[in-house]
Design brief:
Elements: E1 6-10, H1 14-25, E2 29-33, H2 37-40, E3 49-50, H3 54-58, E4 63-66, H4 71-81, E5 90-93, H5 99-111, E6 115-118, E7 121-122, H6 125-129, E8 133-138, H7 144-154, E9 155-162, H8 169-198, H9 202-209, H10 217-227, H11 238-254, H12 260-277
Parallel strand pairs: 1-2, 1-4, 2-3, 4-5, 5-6, 8-9
Antiparallel strand pairs: 7-8
Helix pairs in contact: 1-7, 4-5, 8-10, 8-11, 8-12, 11-12
Length: 293
């Protein structure tokens, strides 16, 4: 029987809420905090204790899991949680924080006696709700057994990258994977926008490449969301995609690589957000191809 753990979850957006539910369903004690408490309240129906402050959520927790907007947000919330942190607790840092952001968070962990794990995830709302995320992880081998029950509750598989979470190996892999996902998302939107502009039935395009080397399930999934106006609730929001695209572009510049597609993706997501689509699924980058929303 799996040992029951006490887990503090900080951040209950699309991903964090699903992760908190699955950890609770696995039999662990879960306390959750979100900046907007109203977004966390529904978790109470699944046995999650909703906390008023980050420090309350992490009090005496064996494991702390952060799933916040970005690195600075994660650091700010952990500073608020500092009074409740238990020395020796494991910190699963799942926020897509960027390379520099992970280093700053690892420094905080060292200052407060936490065992730091860099654990970004691949997946969107549906796999998160099903506990089928792919966890990319880096952290000390001798402490992995202590966090395995939590990782197993939220993901179908954990890929270990290395033993030093602060080196950001898992985050680096996440940025590479996301560069492909975000490029594909924008390619879908541009193809459908061009079909509209040229008077081409988008289904003709989808039928033309069906079953061939250019076909992919992701194309059909995102195309359907656009064509059938199913952009809410978001699987992965435009605002978050814009942030991730900026992190990818910044990482490329910092390491001497020109990432033109990532730069363009960041601009398209930002433009779609400015048009009012920020909380819709990232497929709504489609609208960035037009001068009006």
């Amino acid at each position: 029987m799996t040992e029951q753990l006490t887990v503090g979850v900080l951040g209950t957006g699309i991903m964090g809420a699903a992760m908190a539910r699955n950890i609770a369903r696995a039999g662990h004690t879960v306390r959750a905090w979100n900046r907007s408490r109203a977004k966390a309240e529904p978790l109470a129906a699944d046995g999650v204790q909703v906390s008023d402050t980050p420090a309350e959520a992490v009090a005496d927790a064996d494991v702390v899991l952060t799933m916040l907007y970005d690195g600075p947000a994660a650091l700010d919330v952990m500073r608020q949680a500092a009074a409740g942190l238990k020395p020796g607790a494991a910190w699963l840092q799942s926020t897509t924080a960027g390379i520099d952001g992970v280093a700053a968070l690892a420094d905080f962990a060292a200052e407060h006696g936490l065992v730091f794990f860099d654990t970004p995830v691949l997946g969107t709302r549906q796999p998160a709700e099903a506990g089928q995320l792919l966890v990319l992880a880096a952290g000390p081998a001798d402490r992995r057994d202590a966090v395995a029950p939590v990782l197993e509750a939220v993901g179908s598989r954990t890929v270990w990258i290395g033993e030093d979470g602060g080196a950001g190996g898992a985050t680096r892999l996440k940025l590479v994977a996301n560069s492909w996902v975000l490029a594909a998302t924008n390619a879908v939107g541009e193809a459908l926008a061009l079909s509209k502009a040229l008077g081409v039935d988008p289904q003709s395009f989808l039928d033309a490449i069906a079953g061939g080397g250019l076909d992919m399930p992701y194309l059909h999934a995102k195309s359907a969301m656009i064509l059938e106006d199913r952009l809410t609730p978001a699987q992965f929001a435009v605002d978050t995609a814009a942030k991730d695209a900026r992190l990818i572009a910044e990482a490329g510049r910092a390491h001497g690589v020109r990432l033109d597609v990532a730069e363009a993706a960041a601009a398209r997501f930002s433009r779609a957000a400015e048009q009012g689509h920020g909380h819709e699924d990232m497929a709504a980058a489609y609208f960035a191809s037009f001068d009006t929303p």
